[in-house]
């Protein structure tokens, strides 16, 4: 199952325009709040130059990239945690994703309505973060209420009460769950609630066309805040991305060169979302198919095999492994074998980014 990134932000900051450009799925984008009610969902390929090189060397029948599932979640407003603007419904959608891309408007345009009258990145972020924190507070309060009822005669329930009280105090101070210095055991306990503010996040600065070449005061302010939070900022002009998505690749490349854009925002977001979730890529390569697979950094060979099919993990015997860099430099699997760079690995092998793997299994 593909990893899921949710696009959030205030209404009318460019989320749906960006989503449409990312996924080429027709999401309604209009100059008024709440044009998105149910979340739009699309798949974004993670472009990896190694995959193209593998395709050139192996010449398969088809090539399949790793994918990110992107969810365009309707705009949140002040009071969302109390149900304003259908807030509770929208917050439940955010709770289900793996990571959050927070779109922040970083341009002024009197022709584009702003829900609070005018753009102010710091204020806009505070509105969203406050609602997310309040929603998490409610989750923790409910959990504590249940635990206190169960605590009599239940040592396990009683033991977790102080842990959730610690989180309650942290959120009550207006802090994001991910900003806390939690022990590993505490993080495991919190994980069951899927707290929104514990999810890995990045900011997307939706800038004007001019803002792609020179950062505006809005983007500068956003970057200062992001640096304090240790969060990445990706500047994207959603309107330009939307135009790029509607033209042929060669034409888009020429358009980007003319504008001085090195990588499209679509490519940047897909890559950053992948890295945000601590993922690495391994490949399977044969005449039938060359394919990129995402796995959590630190995954074992059987866990990687399970990405293809659960039977591969259950019946794992060995993995045939060599690295993309060796194939790239030597030119063929035969040459890799002759150079002694091909090997067999067992259950304890930790998959490395760029591994090319073939699994032996028996069910």
- Radius of gyration over C-alpha positions, nearest whole angstrom: 23 Å
**Number of helices, counting only DSSP H or I runs of 4 residues or more:** 14
Class derived from helix and strand content? alpha/beta
Task: Determine the N-to-C terminus distance.
Answer: 22 Å
Strand content: 15-25%
Poorly predicted sequence stretches spanning 5 or more consecutive residues: 26-38, 83-87
**H/E element string?**
EHEHEEHEHHHEHEHHHEEHHEHHEE
The major sheet is characterized as: 6 strands, mixed
> Which bin fits the share of residues in helices?
40-55%
Dominant shape:
flat
> What topology, given as strand order, has the largest sheet?
2-4-1-5-6-7
Number of strands: 12
Mean pLDDT over the residues: 84
Please provide a written account of the structure.
42% of the residues lie in helices and 20% in strands. The chain is α/β, with parallel strands linked by helices and 363 residues long. Strands 2-4-1-5-6-7 form a six-stranded mixed sheet, sandwiched between helices. Strands 3-9-8 form a three-stranded mixed sheet, sandwiched between helices. α4 (121-150) runs antiparallel to α5 (155-172). The model is unreliable at 26-38 and 83-87 (pLDDT under 50).
